[in-house]
Amino acid sequence: MSTIATQPASAPASSRRFKAFATTFSISGPVVYCLTVYFNVALFTYWPADGRFAWGSGAANTTDGPNMLWYGWTITTVLIASALGLVATIVPERITKKIPLWLVWLLPILAIPYVVYALMFWWTLAARG
Amino acid sequence: MGGIISTYTFWTLWLFVHLILALGLLGAITHQAMAVALPARKPAAGIVTRFRSVPAAGYATAVCVLYVLTFFLGSFIYTHYRIAVRIPLEVGHYYKTGGFFDFKEHVSTLGLVLLPAYWFFWKNAQQPEYDNARKGVTIVLAVTVWFLFIVGHVLNNTRGFGS
Question: What is the pTM of this model?
């Protein structure tokens, strides 16, 4: 008894271009996100205490209170990964079909050690009590 | 909130909706992960086999929609968390708890970027060339969703409903 449906895929889902976009987006996403966090490239910063937005990576300050960079990092990642995915749609299939599909699930796993490292200030504070 | 409901009730309601969406997502992705990791080979007999025997491909779009909705709602609630929850956590020296929430935010983005490939692999479930990739990405996404749910649950116990 198979648990995987065998219906044919719809036209967009089975197109070569969508495959190139989707796999490139998902493969590049974790790498781009780690780089975005490492280099602190946020498209914008949000200060929730006074609801202020500003382009780029802004710091916490006494006027606006704590800052939130994660929204900016995430949007930056989605935009860059989308751009790379769109580029992949115009690359010849003989090149894109060589991209190993196992990278889609392996790269998020490999990103975890870096993410834990990026939060070192929390773990350091916890160790100090 | 215009005097209709209190600020506390407003955020509690959104947190509750976030929980309901997360539960739906957790159920759907767990069914799917079980179906690809331990596919049922014979007609369903017990509850565990029936759990693994679901038509897994039909869950793909629902998983993507639920993930995105839960993600956006969590992002909205996060603005309140940053002021009303994280600062008291820091003051109380609950650094591991705060650290795990930041870990959760990173993991949620890593899960979000998986969705296009995940959806593509499931929409082409009849293609054997995608079997391994589909299995891998589904299991990684299921582990991701369980991690997000458990951390969120612990955070809620620390300073969520009723605090």
Answer: 0.90
Interface probe with A: pick from B52, B110, B140, most Cβ of A within 10 Å: B110
Q: Is B110–A30 a contact, with Cβ atoms under 8 angstroms apart?
A: yes
Size of interface A-B (CB pairs under 8 A): 159
CA distances (Å), B113 to each of A65, A120, A129, B77, B158, in order?
A: 30, 24, 35, 21, 29
* Number of separate domains in chain A: 1
**C-alpha to C-alpha distance for A30 and A34, rounded to whole angstroms:** 6
For residue A96, tell me if it sits in a domain: yes
pLDDT tens figures, A58-116: 999 888 899 999 999 999 999 999 999 999 999 998 998 899 999 999 999 999 999 99
Domain contains A114? yes
ipTM of this predicted complex? 0.90
